[in-house]
Co-chaperonin GroES
Amino acid sequence: MLKPLGDRIVIELIEAEEKTSSGIVLPDSAKEKPQEGKVIAVGTGRVLENGQRVNLEVSEGDRIIFSKYAGTEVKYEGTEYLILRESDILATIG
Amino acid sequence: MLKPLGDRIVIELIEAEEKTSSGIVLPDSAKEKPQEGKVIAVGTGRVLENGQRVNLEVSEGDRIIFSKYAGTEVKYEGTEYLILRESDILATIG
Amino acid sequence: MLKPLGDRIVIELIEAEEKTSSGIVLPDSAKEKPQEGKVIAVGTGRVLENGQRVNLEVSEGDRIIFSKYAGTEVKYEGTEYLILRESDILATIG
Amino acid sequence: MLKPLGDRIVIELIEAEEKTSSGIVLPDSAKEKPQEGKVIAVGTGRVLENGQRVNLEVSEGDRIIFSKYAGTEVKYEGTEYLILRESDILATIG
Amino acid sequence: MLKPLGDRIVIELIEAEEKTSSGIVLPDSAKEKPQEGKVIAVGTGRVLENGQRVNLEVSEGDRIIFSKYAGTEVKYEGTEYLILRESDILATIG
Amino acid sequence: MLKPLGDRIVIELIEAEEKTSSGIVLPDSAKEKPQEGKVIAVGTGRVLENGQRVNLEVSEGDRIIFSKYAGTEVKYEGTEYLILRESDILATIG
Amino acid sequence: MLKPLGDRIVIELIEAEEKTSSGIVLPDSAKEKPQEGKVIAVGTGRVLENGQRVNLEVSEGDRIIFSKYAGTEVKYEGTEYLILRESDILATIG
């Protein structure tokens, strides 16, 4: 299992075909192309200067839109994942 | 439904024709051209270092002026939206 | 009505002719030319990390000097305005 | 009257002749040339993250040395002034 | 023994062969290639502005994925180590 | 008298001859050459975000080593001084 | 005696021969080469925004690894020293 640190999340990409069924169509010409993913795991959140941790706004299973060039790809047990920071997420869907 | 995170908002663009009727005319030669939009959804606000969230100053339905090159375009269920940060909003109209 | 957000202000420019009458003459050769304006509307102020809002130091009707290339021009109901941040204001006059 | 905002100050430049009489001679070859001025007006000070304002260390009438390329020149009622931030002041003289 | 300072950690790299057995395969074409390592020692954590130290989220023995070009290589008593900051760690595995 | 502001200090340079007598020899090839000086006056210290001022660690009369290209030279009543920030000081000697 | 300020430390370099005996071998090809040193003196620590000083994690006599191009060389009473910030230290040894 991949367990992201701090304000990071692990997502699985949702391919364009799925996107169409969920109603999202992203313009090809957009310079910073957003993409859709499904949250697999979330970190414990970033630590504020008063020592408090901020829970992430997204949870396992959420569908999200994120900026295309954000994050780092990893392949784990045969599946490709993307590790993002919560600040790379634009919105949740649903 | 698109639900923006943190201090982000989802807006629908208001076309130039509508703008004229609302009284806003933006000069073509302006380098950083502002634009007009209608707020569709707002995030829960950013988190301060004391753990407190700051509610956004805009609400669903507000008409706003924002900087042209700000934000990311997404198409959801056949409609085009723009996802901005609250700091990209210059003013509300009305 | 334009209502600026946070620490932004909406001003009307005061033309050079008016400036002369008010006593301000700005050198043409200055690289970062300041200009004069009249405050039309002010935002609610920026939010500090302790959650407190800081009221702006300027109020509707104040005459101000600001840096020339600051802000974004908008035209609303036939009048041209400039939307600035309070930090772009150098001084008030009067 | 020019009233500077925040941690800004308005000064009148003190010409080189005066400088000699006050004992300050500045080397011509210095890359960041300091200069001398007299404080005409001071702002209310910057606001800390706890909401407190910090009074400026200089007062009306103080003679100061500041970095040459700092600030913005304005001409008001026939006199040239320079508007600086307090952080551009190196020292007071006297 | 190497004892890292603050929010730093000392890791041993896990070679590609081991990676395959643990199920991680990293794409060769990725620009910022992640890598796998085993935590050997952790620092005492960074100090917040309120004076509190934040314990690291990883412990000795954890397997981690980190960004390839992060950290500094050192060789100590015949073994090669990498010294990273906790912020260079993307996720733990297992 | 020159009275530096905030975390600034005024120093007199100590020439290379004196340096030898005090035991400091600085390599000519060093890119960021440190230098030696004597503290003439110190500011009241910088202001923290809680409103507290931090007294400088150096006092009038201290001998210090500082980075060569730091600070601004001024000539006052026939003597050359250098105005530095405390952060430009590397160490005290003695 | 050299007394470093704030979060600075004074170290003596430990030459490559000594390094071999202590077991550290650093690869020649490393771009940011770490090096080994012995702590001679430590500062009083940096000041947090709440006014508290943070004691350094290293003490006189500690052996440390630091990044090669960090710090400033000085020669004092015939011995060469390096003045670093604590953040330039990667780890202690022993």
Remarks:
- Residues 45 and 51 of chain B are 12 Å apart (CA to CA).
- Chain B has one domain: 8-93.
- The beta strands of chain B are 2-4, 8-13, 24-25, 34-42, 63-67, 72-76, 79-85, 89-93.
